[in-house]
């Protein structure tokens, strides 16, 4: 796998943008001096400057000297950012990656420049430890550029290419989904306290049990019900607990929560 030889501009360097920058350098995909980082409060980037990254407040100047541009601001801030950089966009050399929820490739081209290659990426906060589940989609990017962006995000986790019309759904399942699984772990630890464990013990036990469950599925490539069947015996304690949770809407509430999050994710951006 060859290194990337161009320059990358990450505009709006918050948690996602900075985690991507660190992942790219750690994986030796690029050197720090090939990455430019911008944000409104530039003092928060001083530590990155000391590690060789170029930091700036001037989005347009950074874009002008970049090959790949990552739009990593909130959807509500995206229109203003695109107004700033539109005059320096060059469709012959620029590829734009957007991590903003609910903003289509077409929306971005309308604000920047027709013919521009745009790729959407939806990582989650586990990007901070290189364990993101990132979905990528595009309506016009070349296979070569999609492969390049896939390589970028593989430095910080797993990547799946999907159709663009599923990107808001991916936001709910993967990005919002981190919080849903965290809440389930928190609830399990609270149950642990009620049955006799200290809070710190209960949390450690719940976290490791959840990690073991996820790794079982990843490594065995099995279905959850297959693994559940191995734990449930006739008239046993596991099936009793599972059925009690289901009677109280465990699966149903998770499904309904994901559906509502998908609706909300599609409403975050105003095209105006």
Automatic annotation (TrEMBL):
<dbReference type="Pfam" id="PF03807">
    <property type="entry name" value="F420_oxidored"/>
</dbReference>
<keyword id="KW-0963">Cytoplasm</keyword>
<dbReference type="GO" id="GO:0004735">
    <property type="term" value="F:pyrroline-5-carboxylate reductase activity"/>
</dbReference>
<comment type="function">
    <text>Catalyzes the reduction of 1-pyrroline-5-carboxylate (PCA) to L-proline.</text>
</comment>
<dbReference type="InterPro" id="IPR008927">
    <property type="entry name" value="6-PGluconate_DH-like_C_sf"/>
</dbReference>
<dbReference type="GO" id="GO:0005737">
    <property type="term" value="C:cytoplasm"/>
</dbReference>
<feature type="binding site">
    <location>
        <position position="59"/>
    </location>
    <ligand>
        <name>NADPH</name>
    </ligand>
</feature>
<dbReference type="InterPro" id="IPR028939">
    <property type="entry name" value="P5C_Rdtase_cat_N"/>
</dbReference>
<dbReference type="GO" id="GO:0055129">
    <property type="term" value="P:L-proline biosynthetic process"/>
</dbReference>
<keyword id="KW-0521">NADP</keyword>
<dbReference type="InterPro" id="IPR000304">
    <property type="entry name" value="Pyrroline-COOH_reductase"/>
</dbReference>
<comment type="similarity">
    <text>Belongs to the pyrroline-5-carboxylate reductase family.</text>
</comment>
<keyword id="KW-0560">Oxidoreductase</keyword>
<keyword id="KW-0028">Amino-acid biosynthesis</keyword>
<feature type="domain" description="Pyrroline-5-carboxylate reductase dimerisation">
    <location>
        <begin position="164"/>
        <end position="267"/>
    </location>
</feature>
<feature type="domain" description="Pyrroline-5-carboxylate reductase catalytic N-terminal">
    <location>
        <begin position="8"/>
        <end position="102"/>
    </location>
</feature>
<dbReference type="InterPro" id="IPR036291">
    <property type="entry name" value="NAD(P)-bd_dom_sf"/>
</dbReference>
<feature type="binding site">
    <location>
        <begin position="72"/>
        <end position="75"/>
    </location>
    <ligand>
        <name>NADP(+)</name>
    </ligand>
</feature>
<dbReference type="InterPro" id="IPR029036">
    <property type="entry name" value="P5CR_dimer"/>
</dbReference>
<protein>
    <recommendedName>
        <fullName>Pyrroline-5-carboxylate reductase</fullName>
        <ecNumber>1.5.1.2</ecNumber>
    </recommendedName>
</protein>
<keyword id="KW-0641">Proline biosynthesis</keyword>
<comment type="pathway">
    <text>Amino-acid biosynthesis; L-proline biosynthesis; L-proline from L-glutamate 5-semialdehyde: step 1/1.</text>
</comment>
<dbReference type="Pfam" id="PF14748">
    <property type="entry name" value="P5CR_dimer"/>
</dbReference>
